[in-house]
Amino acid sequence: MKQCVICGAVFAPYRPQAVVCGPLCRRERENRQLFNSPQRAARRVVPKERQCAVCSKPFLSVHAQKRTCSPRCSRERKKEATAQWALDNRDKHLAGKRRREKKRRTTRHVEVLALAAATRTRNRNAIREQARQSNYRRYWNNPAAYNAKQQRWNRERSVRKVLSQLNQLAEAINATAHRIQGNERTE
Ligand SMILES: [Zn+2]
Ligand SMILES: [Zn+2]
Predict the structure, then answer these.
(1) Is residue 102 part of a domain?
(2) Of 2, 17, 120, 179, which has fewest CB within 10 angstroms of its CB?
(3) Measured in angstroms, how far is the CA atom of residue 82 from the centroid of ligand 2?
(4) Cα of 58 from ligand 2 centre, angstroms
(5) At what angle do helices 90-140 and 71-88 cross, to 10 degrees?
(6) Which domain holds residue 129?
(7) Any idea which ligand is nearest the CA of 7?
(8) What is the Å distance from ligand 1's center to 8 Cα?
(9) Which of 66, 67, 75 lies closest to 45 in space, CA to CA?
């Protein structure tokens, strides 16, 4: 009888070299051997100590490109790099600045226009609503006034209609007169 090296159970070995009790413990033993294998140890990434490019503090990192110890120092370094680029590429820097400013102004302009339009609509709607309410109050208990107003509107509408008919008639007469004069001249 033998004792399993994984679970400690006593078992009857089916071959003399057996050290585990069954398939499950064999799998577990293989896993542990893999986990502690020299290949895995070689693959393991060891953090290297380096010096922060901004504050000179030593720090650990597994990334080869890492130059700064913290997000704060990273921002600082980026800021410095941007400033240096601006100094080295004066024209590009100014052009970009102008472009951004123009875009900002355009955006702002569009926003102002939209706001003004919204205000106008709101005002117009408010005025209409006010008029509606005031009309409502004025005529609600006063059918006579309402009828008088309707009649006035009808009168005004028929007057407008007659005037437009007269206009059309005048235009027709004018056109005919022109034609007759033209005919007389050519005869
Ligand atoms: Zn076992
Ligand atoms: Zn730092």
Answers:
(1) no
(2) 17
(3) 18
(4) 8
(5) 110
(6) 107-145
(7) 1
(8) 6
(9) 66
Q: 16 C-alpha vs ligand 1 centroid, how far in Å?
A: 16
How many domains in the chain?
Answer: 2
Round to whole Å and give the CA distance between 145 and 147. 5
Q: Return the ligand number nearest the Cα of 52.
A: 2
**Cα separation values, 175 from 151, 180, 185, 187, Å:** 36, 9, 15, 19
Per-residue pLDDT of the chain (187 residues), as tens digits, is 899 999 999 999 888 889 999 999 999 999 988 888 888 888 878 888 999 999 999 999 888 889 999 999 999 999 999 999 999 999 999 999 999 999 999 988 898 999 999 999 999 999 988 888 888 887 877 888 888 988 999 999 999 999 999 999 999 999 999 998 887 776 6
CA of 75 to the centre of ligand 2 (A): 10
Is position 47 within any domain? no
Ligand nearest to the CA of 73: 2
